[in-house]
């Protein structure tokens, strides 16, 4: 018995060491980008890879905030992310609960249809959406992007939330209805608090998608003042901007900080929210 426990402990230890080394390897590009953002020039690109710069400075961060319209891009990304998350989750929660609890005609067909729509690459609809936006005067307007993002992320939200609602025992709802709770009170006072982990995780996944989305943001936002952070980062390395990799790295680090902060706050919900959402289909 002791020999078995010793082998299991050694096995877990080796596995943990392997994953720790894997994490360190994955962090090398991030650490190099951080080092590059703190460097005083682009000469670091011609030298060997160094995690720590010779003369660290915050000038690149000051330049990206003061000299470039980074704060405008940040505001645009916040508007796009928050608007998409509110609309997508407002629709997804109610639709997912309906698909989970009610057995109506065409239910399976609608679910499969939504899944099929999500399987097609977004680039297939690019030209049609561009012409439609041009006719509706939605180019360079955040409302158009929010409509696209919310429509596509609703499918993800519905499927993920439905899987979580399926894990909530129906007996809880039946007991609440016996006590006189209506459908609205049942959803808001009982179901939503129970589904908090899935709601938080799904909301953050939608936010991360919009925050990092590049294809639509650079296609339909043609004005510098309408760029999101993804489009702004592209412009730092194209067009009239100089190709300064330290400046680009500083901008990339700043873009990642808000998402990292949000992730650290909700990480306790990540495992339960994602695994429970995939238990049932």
Automatic annotation (TrEMBL):
Give all residue intervals belonging to the ABC transmembrane type-1 domain.
Answer: 74-266
Identify the InterPro entries for this entry: BP-dep_ABC_trans_perm, MetI-like, MetI-like_sf
GO MF terms listed in the record are:
ABC-type maltose transporter activity
Q: Which Gene3D superfamilies match?
A: MetI-like
User: GO annotations under biological process?
Assistant: maltodextrin transmembrane transport
Its transmembrane ranges are 12-34, 78-99, 111-133, 145-165, 186-211, 245-266
Q: How does it sit in the membrane?
A: Multi-pass membrane protein
Say if the entry is tagged with keyword Transmembrane helix.
yes
Q: Which UniProt keywords apply?
A: Cell membrane, Membrane, Sugar transport, Transmembrane, Transmembrane helix, Transport
Q: Which GO terms describe its cellular component?
A: plasma membrane
Q: State its location(s).
A: Cell membrane
Q: Which family does it belong to?
A: Belongs to the binding-protein-dependent transport system permease family. MalFG subfamily.
For this entry, the protein name equals: Arabinogalactan oligomer / maltooligosaccharide transport system permease protein
């Amino acid at each position: 018995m002791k020999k078995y426990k010793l082998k299991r402990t050694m096995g877990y230890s080796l596995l943990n060491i392997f994953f720790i080394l894997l994490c360190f390897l994955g962090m090398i590009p991030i650490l190099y980008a951080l080092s590059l953002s703190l460097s005083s020039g682009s000469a670091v690109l011609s030298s060997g890879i160094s995690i720590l710069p010779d003369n660290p400075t915050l000038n690149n961060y000051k330049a990206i905030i003061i000299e470039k319209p980074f704060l405008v891009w940040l505001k645009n990304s916040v508007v796009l992310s928050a608007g998409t998350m509110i609309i997508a989750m407002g629709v997804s929660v109610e639709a997912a609960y309906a698909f989970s609890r009610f057995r109506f005609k065409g239910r399976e067909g609608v679910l499969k249809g939504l899944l099929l729509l999500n399987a097609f690459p977004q680039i297939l609809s690019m030209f049609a959406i561009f012409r439609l936006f041009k006719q509706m005067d939605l180019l360079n307007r955040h409302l158009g992007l929010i409509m696209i993002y919310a429509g596509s992320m609703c499918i993800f939200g519905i499927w993920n939330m439905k899987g979580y609602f399926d894990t909530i025992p129906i007996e809880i709802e039946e007991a609440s209805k016996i006590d006189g709770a209506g459908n609205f009170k049942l959803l808001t006072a009982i179901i939503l608090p129970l589904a908090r982990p899935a709601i938080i995780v799904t909301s953050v996944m939608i936010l991360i998608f919009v925050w990092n989305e590049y294809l639509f943001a650079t296609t339909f936002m043609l004005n510098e003042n309408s760029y999101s952070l993804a489009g702004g980062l592209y412009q730092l390395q194209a067009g009239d901007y100089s190709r300064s990799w330290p400046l680009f790295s500083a901008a990339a680090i700043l873009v990642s900080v808000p998402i990292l902060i949000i992730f650290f706050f909700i990480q306790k919900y990540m495992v339960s929210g994602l695994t429970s959402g995939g238990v049932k289909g």
